[in-house]
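Working notes for the structural subgroup meeting. M.R. asked for a predicted model of this chain before we commit to crystallization trials. I am recording the input and output together here so anyone reviewing the notebook later can reproduce the run.

Input as submitted:
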Amino acid sequence: MTLVRASFVLSLVVACASGHYATVDPGHAAFVIPHHIAEGKGEGEDLPADAGPPQEQQLPAPPLPGSVPDPAPLALREQWQYALLYQGGEVTVEHVEKRTSPKPVTTLRHMGRFALELWIGHELVDRVRFDFPLIAAEETPATGRRPLHDAPSLGPHAIARISVLLPASPRATRLVLVDRASGKLQDLPWPPDREPSVAASVASPANPAAGTSPPPSPSSAKP
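Returned structure, recorded in token form:
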């Protein structure tokens, strides 16, 4: 007990030795003793040792084509008419032609296995659903062997064509062909009349004559 008192008195004497008189209020002197209570750098050193870094906010993944509801249909005078071919389970574009109507044409809403979707970033601008003749009523083809008494399927061997009218949206920057049954997505040029890229005209090993003019025929060659 005597040792504790001696330590307290010694600490008090040391603290007083560094003190000084100062005038706090006019006419009132005070004896100031410097002290340090609950000091820290304030840089998170008082946090628990197991506290990890702050969690970063994760942005939601962009929506996949065919997975969002239909937007409000567009009403435009300019339309693109797509001639599409279904053959061997694949869809290809045979021809595209621009049409201008006297009045705005509102995009129709139908049910269908296939769709042409216009996008800008993560926003679906418009969607046109459609089906090919002969395969519209068929179910999604299953993997593996077909049942013995299953009805014949025309899809794998069918050749069908259809014409689809798509609004010429100036906002859209991407066109996607969606097959809802197989989940296949196919990017198509948009707008369809854009100039081909320079890289497409560069000669390649598969087509070394690309980008060059054909040689003159023997009948046109001068002697």
